[in-house]
Amino acid sequence: GASVDEIARHAQVSKATLYSYFPDKRILFMEVAKQECVRQADSALDAIDMTASPEEVLKAACKSMMRFFFSDFGQAVFRIAVAESKRFPELGAEFYKNGPLVARGKLMHYLEEAVGRGELKIDDVELAADQLPQLCRADLFDKLMFGIQGSVSEEEIQRVGNGAVDMFLARYAI
Questions:
Q1: Which residues are within 8 A (CB) of 45 and not within 5 positions of it... i.e. 6 or more apart?
Q2: Which of 95, 112, 129, 137 could form a disulfide with 141 if both were Cys (CB 3.0 to 4.6 A apart)?
């Protein structure tokens, strides 16, 4: 809802400069969302000891994903991408490509390596990589999206994240 004037003022650049890089607000929005998704993913991966057990790696990954899903920024980007994807399909496609699809690829890579090391038994890595983030959303995501709950506590993230990994490993652990 911000005007280009407001964005330019906040960024301390001229409107002309802003338009030279981003011909419209949708492109600017997607670039901001894309950069934040990349920053969050890189920061999460740097913080996770990928040599740890699958339980430890997946719990850390889930909690990182959940903190992003449930953050004000994560919720806002999701809502905008969903709301505008009918009118601007490229917006939804870009959000998916630069957010969920990137996370899915990184998770698939980890799962394939864990299978290769004999730590997990997964016949369909793509499906498993789709399942885990959905388990992390549990009831919390819907409560936030529908305004039933305004925020998620760290205790809720711990409880749901640990439960998601426990369920995931009940199916895929060796």
A1: 106
A2: 137
Eight-state DSSP code of residue 120: B
The reported pLDDT for the residue numbered 148 is 96
Which residues on neighbouring strands pair with residue 118, listed in sequence order?
none
Tens of pLDDT, residue by residue over 89-115, are 888 888 888 888 988 998 999 999 999
pTM value is: 0.82
Per-position DSSP letters for 125-165, written without gaps between them: HHHHHHHHHHHHHTTHHHHHHTTS-S---HHHHHHHHHHHH
Copy the structure tokens of residue 139: 């009831």
Judge contact between 111 and 120, C-beta under 8 A. Answer: yes
- Phi, psi (degrees; rounded to nearest 5) at 173: -75, 150
Query: Is residue 37 within 8 Å of residue 99, measured between CB atoms?
Result: yes
> Which two structure tokens, joined as six digits, stand for 18?
């802003």
Torsion of CA 101, 103, 109, 114, to 10 degrees: -140
